[in-house]
Design a protein that fits this description.
The complex is a heterodimer of chains A (413) and B (85). Chain A is α/β, with parallel strands linked by helices and 413 residues long. Chain A has 13 helices and 16 strands. Chain A has 2 domains: 5-246, Thiolase/Chalcone synthase (Peroxisomal Thiolase, Chain A, domain 1), CATH 3.40.47.10; 255-403, Peroxisomal Thiolase, Chain A, domain 1 (3-Layer(aba) Sandwich). Chain A is globular and about 60 Å long. In chain B, 51% of the residues lie in helices and 0% in strands. In chain B, helix 1 crosses helix 2 (42-56). Chain B has a single domain, classed as ACP-like (Non-ribosomal Peptide Synthetase Peptidyl Carrier Protein, Chain A), CATH 1.10.1200.10. The chains are: A alpha/beta (413), B mainly alpha (85).
Chain lengths: 413, 85
């Protein structure tokens, strides 16, 4: 039996809460962070709503050496990583550099930084382009900067698979810990709410054109009309259960199972592969469908994709067989940051015994889901499944187990 | 164009280009302190170099910024370019 890998630290930056405490206080109460775009004037774009993180002042958190060389998403990721390490009680300088890795996901890279430098290139000339453009807009830059700031030289990398990548990165982190790395910083933060990023997002044809925050992002609703983009995500500290036990760390829970699949070619007539991803994750965890206590849905809010997800969940768990929720209705879709944030929400939900609600949704009659709408639902939660899909056919699912389920408490010995 | 490129000018450009290391006192006598000890890596110097080239209309060449070890050495190179013999 492979040794469990557990989560010991969370760092959260979300539109409805900066920091774990603020995020959970808002999320458990159904408080949304979606509103009209303020970072630029959105009037001339089809989509004008976003989940923006309010009140983040990078100068308050980061040294001035890092500010000229980092995009907003990297600044958020560095701060979230600091918080996650602090939450875990880890002082990186006390741990050998090669025993710590950084594996994050990315969806877009540093768009706002890149926009500024491309503007410099075409309006002033190449000598005005920042030398830091060489890495500031890379997919891998969050992993690189977290690695440099914290002196982490173990196995590191980046995974790019839209929303699914957020789970794929955590799975990759688990793999490296099983191979012997003591600690991996994982998760993801994306932030692309700038004109260039916004134009790129429009090309998916999956953004809601509603101007009304309460109507714009309604997965599994008859009024589903696309999603609202958001920024942020979560950074997680992962360790082997032995390492966590040895230092008597607080354990949120275990990364117990993971499955990833790729959809068949469009028009093939074959079943979408989401159900298989869920089944693989449950089998990997050794958990039966009846033992899953809550599902955090991908919640695309495209009627076709909602149907695929509802049918997959019904096929695995039976009609209304498990409570399903989508707290991302309060943040918008965060791309690679979405699933790590759902993992964090799952741990916090298990800790409190409370399923956070899906807001603004009236469940369409065609879906046989037990969707937790409007109000949070108290429940004893020992396991949670997080589902994430990426544009182009990526499906990932991850099963997490609470501290009790993981047997990770020192007093269990 | 400035007549002379001073340590004050250089430090201002470095701060704008790359910030300042928290553990370093840039107000101290640092003319002969290495850029490495001041907390500036090669990329920070490259970025500062391109700003110096723009603001002082000099050409430093690709290797100058990575070859000069200290503020004094850099000031000498820039000022030599400002006042060609």
């Amino acid at each position: 039996m492979t040794a469990p890998v557990v989560v010991t630290g969370l760092g959260i930056a979300a539109p409805n809460g900066l920091g774990t405490r603020a995020y959970w206080a808002a999320t458990r109460a159904g408080k949304s962070g979606i509103g009209r775009v303020t970072r630029f004037t959105p009037d001339r774009y089809p989509a004008r709503l976003a989940g923006e993180i309010p009140g983040f002042v990078p100068e308050e958190h980061l040294p001035s050496r890092l500010l000229p060389q980092t995009d907003r998403m990297t600044q958020l990721a560095l701060v979230a990583a600091d918080w996650a390490l602090g939450d875990a009680g880890i002082r990186p300088q006390d741990i050998p550099a090669f025993d710590m890795g950084v594996i994050t996901a990315s969806f877009s890279g540093g768009f706002e930084f890149g926009q500024g430098e491309l503007a410099n290139l075409w309006s002033k000339g190449s000598q005005y382009v920042s030398a830091y453009q060489s890495f500031a807009w890379f997919y891998a830059v969050n992993s690189g900067q977290i690695s440099i700031r914290n002196g982490m030289k173990g196995p590191s990398g980046v995974v790019v698979a839209d929303q699914a990548g957020g789970l794929d990165a955590v799975a990759q982190a688990r793999r490296q810990i099983r191979k012997g790395t003591a600690l991996v910083v994982s998760g993801a933060i994306d932030a692309t709410i700038c004109p260039w990023g916004w134009v790129a997002l429009q090309t998916s044809n999956r953004l809601s054109d509603s101007g009304e925050p309460s109507l714009a992002y309604r997965p599994f609703d008859e009024g589903a009309r696309g999603h609202v983009p958001g920024e942020g995500g979560a950074i997680l500290v992962l360790e082997s259960v032995e390492a966590a036990r040895a230092r008597r760390a607080r354990v949120y829970g275990e990364i117990a199972g993971y499955g990833a699949t790729f959809d068949p070619r469009p028009g093939s007539g074959r079943e979408p592969a989401l159900r298989a991803a869920i089944e693989v994750a449950l089998a990997d965890a050794g958990v039966a469908p009846a033992e899953v206590d809550v599902v955090f849905a991908d919640a695309a809010a495209e009627p076709h994709l909602d149907r695929v997800e509802a049918e997959a969940l019904t096929a695995v768990f039976g009609p209304r067989g498990v409570p399903v929720t989508a707290p991302k209705t309060m943040t918008g879709r965060l791309y690679s940051g979405a699933a790590p944030l759902d993992l964090a929400a799952a741990f916090l939900a298990m800790e409190e015994g409370l399923i956070p609600p899906t807001v603004n949704v009236d469940l369409a009659a065609e879906y046989e889901l037990d969707l937790v709408v409007a109000a949070p639902r108290p429940a004893e939660l020992r396991t949670a499944l997080v589902v994430a899909r990426g544009h182009g056919g990526f499906n990932s699912a991850m099963l997490v187990r609470s501290d009790q389920g993981a047997g990770a408490r020192p007093d269990h010995e | 164009m400035a007549e002379q490129f001073t340590l004050t000018d250089l430090m201002q450009i470095l701060r704008e280009a790359a910030g300042a290391d928290e553990g370093v006192d840039l107000e101290a006598d640092i003319l002969d302190t290495s850029f490495e000890d001041l907390g500036y890596d090669s990329l920070a110097l490259l970025e500062a170099g391109s700003r110096i080239e723009r603001e002082y209309a000099v050409t430093l060449g690709d290797s100058t910024m990575t070859d000069v070890p200290t503020p004094r050495a850099l000031l000498d190179v820039v000022n030599a370019n400002l006042t060609p013999a």
